[in-house]
Amino acid sequence: KAGVTQTPRYLIKTRGQQVTLSCSPISGHRSVSWYQQTPGQGLQFLFEYFSETQRNKGNFPGRFSGRQFSNSRSEMNVSTLELGDSALYLCASSAAGQGSGYTFGSGTRLTVV
Amino acid sequence: AQSVAQPEDQVNVAEGNPLTVKCTYSVSGNPYLFWYVQYPNRGLQFLLKYITGDNLVKGSYGFEAEFNKSQTSFHLKKPSALVSDSALYFCAVRTNAGKSTFGDGTTLTVKP
């Protein structure tokens, strides 16, 4: 069974640019969540999608957006990049049901210069 | 609002000794509690979860966790630590709405 796949693994962007990150969940998982991880802030919840609908949203500015496709694959987009957006972005998928744990991808390491 | 607290940023133990990584939570209703481990430059890996039933939950790699409802705690334990257990550990709570909250993480260092 394939795990959660995130692409790309590493990314370097310039301030002001935009970026799109991709996540393919485990087959059959309909929930996809995104987290930002930084040394100072820990794991910060960005948003969760379930069946193509945003179900939960964290406290991030509107520059951060996401979507989910009918095959449960998800993308997140960050526009007008800032230096502070440099982080490891983690995608996690889970089966339906609150008792389901997450399976995380290896993350995308975004560096903004 | 739900919250998770991991009071120790760092836990150091000697190989072969028992280890405990602490976690307390605050949530309305019945909690679904999880522990994850993260190795350098990797995503988080699921270790174990508590949904209902027996308060002592067994998970991967010999880890277990004890749910204590009165103390709202879910401490991670292992009877005999290995150097390879050194990693970053996260406690998380998930509610009926599906939203998960993670603690800030505890770095476990096991010294030979």
Mean pLDDT score of chain B: 92
By oligomeric state, this entry counts as heterodimer
Quote the distance from N terminus to C terminus of chain B. 41 Å
Number of strands of chain A: 11
Q: What is the helix content of chain B?
A: under 10%
What gap, in angstroms, lies between the N and C termini of chain A? 37 Å
Strand proportion of chain B, as a percent range, falls in: over 45%
Structure description:
The complex is a heterodimer of chains A (113) and B (112). With 113 residues, chain A is mainly beta. Chain A is built from no helices and 11 strands. In chain A, the strands form 2 sheets. In chain A, strands 2, 4, 5, 6, 9, 10 and 11 form a 7-stranded mixed beta sheet that branches. In chain A, strands 1-3-8-7 form a 4-stranded antiparallel beta sheet, with no helix packed on it. In chain A, a hairpin with a 2-residue loop joins strand 5 (42-50) and strand 6 (53-57). The model of chain A has no long low-confidence stretch (mean pLDDT 93). Chain B is an all-beta fold. Helices cover 0% and strands 53% of the residues of chain B. Chain B contains no helices and 12 strands. In chain B, the strands form 3 sheets. In chain B, strands 2, 5, 6, 10, 11 and 12 form a 6-stranded mixed beta sheet that branches. In chain B, strands 3-9-8-7 form a 4-stranded antiparallel beta sheet, with no helix packed on it. A two-stranded antiparallel ribbon of chain B has the order 1-4. In chain B, strand 5 and strand 6 (44-50) form a beta hairpin. Chain B is globular and about 40 Å long. The model of chain B has no long low-confidence stretch (mean pLDDT 92). The A-B interface holds A 4, 6, 31, 33, 35, 42-43, 45, 48, 50, 55-56, 90, 92, 98-99, 101-107, 109 and B 32, 34, 36, 41-46, 49, 51, 90, 94-105.
